Write a sequence for this structure.
C-alpha cells in the first residue's frame, strides 16, 4: 500500500494547524516534530508542563524555526480538557492527533472518578474531540481526527455492563478495553461524519510494538526497579523505535487516500515496517456497540456533539 512510506513523503503542511496530545515523548513527540518539519503549526498538548517545556525546547533544536507552542492538557481531568479547548486561540484546526495514553497501570481513578485507562485513553479524547470538532469543520476538506489505538485491543472489548471494571480490575484488560473503545469511537464518529456529509475524516492508527516509555511507566510507578530494568531491556531488544512507531499516525494524518474509519499500522511482520491498513477485531466495527459507547461517553463526559447527524 505504501511502498516504504517515510516522513519525507508527507505532503507540505504549511498553513495547517495540528493539536497532538501527549506530545512530550514517544510517538507524540515524533509526530509533532515531523509535522512541524513539514511546516505545520503544532500545539503540544501535554499534562506535565516541565516535561512539555523540555520537549518543546528539544523540538526547536531539531527543527529550527518550528512553529510550535505548549499548552497544558490533562486528559484525566475533564475540567482541564474544557479549559484547553476554551483557551485554544486557533479558530480552525486541520489535524487532531489523539495520541496520549496510559498502559497497564495499577488501579487508579481520574479526577472525575473514572477508571484511569477508560477515562484517559477514551473519555478524555472523546470529550476533547467533541469540543474541538467545530474548529475541524472550519478547516473544511483535509481536516482529520486520528486516534491512536493499539494492536492489543484484540485482548478485550468494552463491557457495557461494567465499562470501568468495577467488578474486578485487571490492568491489561483495562488497557485492552480502552484501546477497543478508541476504535469503537472512531467507527461511530466516522459513521456520523459521513452521514452529515462532513469533509472531516476520522481514522485510527497503531504503532505496532514500539518503544515509547509506556512499557515501563507502571512498574516505575510501583517502585519496582528490577522489573523496570527487565521490561526496558526486553523492549529495547524486541520493539521498534518511536521514530518508526510514529509512521502509521503520520500516514493516517497526512497521506492521500485515507478513508473514514481506516485503521493504519505497520504492514510488515512482527508489527514493524511501513504503514498499511491494519486488521482489527470485528467487534470494533459493531454498530450497536459503538452507538452504545457513544451514548455512555456523552453521559459521562457531558460533551454532546452537535450537527444534523450528531456530529
Amino acid at each position: 500500500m505504501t511502498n516504504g512510506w517515510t516522513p519525507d513523503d508527507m505532503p507540505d503542511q504549511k498553513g495547517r494547524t495540528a493539536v497532538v496530545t501527549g506530545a512530550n515523548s514517544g510517538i507524540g513527540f515524533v509526530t509533532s516534530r515531523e509535522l512541524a518539519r513539514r511546516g505545520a503549526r503544532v500545539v503540544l498538548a501535554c499534562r506535565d508542563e516541565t516535561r512539555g517545556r523540555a520537549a518543546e525546547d528539544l523540538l526547536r533544536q531539531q527543527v529550527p524555526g518550528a512553529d510550535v507552542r505548549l499548552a497544558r492538557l490533562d486528559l484525566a481531568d475533564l475540567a482541564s480538557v474544557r479549559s484547553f479547548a476554551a483557551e485554544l486561540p486557533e479558530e480552525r484546526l486541520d489535524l487532531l492527533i489523539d495520541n496520549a495514553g496510559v498502559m497497564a497501570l495499577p488501579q487508579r481513578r481520574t479526577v472525575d472518578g473514572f477508571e484511569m485507562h477508560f477515562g484517559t485513553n477514551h473519555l478524555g479524547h472523546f470529550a476533547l474531540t467533541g469540543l474541538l470538532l467545530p474548529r475541524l469543520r472550519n478547516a473544511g476538506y483535509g481536516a482529520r481526527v486520528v486516534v491512536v489505538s493499539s494492536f492489543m485491543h484484540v485482548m478485550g472489548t468494552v463491557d457495557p455492563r461494567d465499562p470501568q471494571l468495577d467488578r474486578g480490575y485487571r490492568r491489561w484488560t483495562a488497557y485492552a478495553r480502552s484501546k477497543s473503545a478508541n476504535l469503537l469511537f472512531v467507527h461511530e464518529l466516522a459513521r456520523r461524519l459521513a452521514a452529515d456529509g462532513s469533509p472531516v475524516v476520522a481514522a485510527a492508527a497503531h504503532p505496532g510494538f514500539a518503544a515509547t516509555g509506556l512499557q515501563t511507566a507502571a512498574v516505575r510507578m510501583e517502585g519496582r526497579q528490577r522489573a523496570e530494568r527487565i521490561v526496558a531491556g526486553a523492549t529495547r531488544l524486541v520493539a521498534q523505535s518511536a521514530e518508526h512507531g510514529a509512521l502509521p499516525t503520520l500516514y493516517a494524518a497526512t497521506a492521500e487516500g485515507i478513508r473514514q474509519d481506516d485503521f493504519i499500522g505497520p504492514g510488515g511482520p512482527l508489527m514493524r515496517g511501513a504503514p498499511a491498513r491494519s486488521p482489527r477485531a470485528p467487534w470494533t466495527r459493531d454498530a450497536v456497540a459503538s452507538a452504545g459507547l457513544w451514548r455512555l461517553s456523552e453521559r459521562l463526559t457531558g460533551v454532546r456533539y452537535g450537527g444534523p447527524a450528531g456530529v
Notes: The CA atoms of residues 43 and 217 lie 24 Å apart.
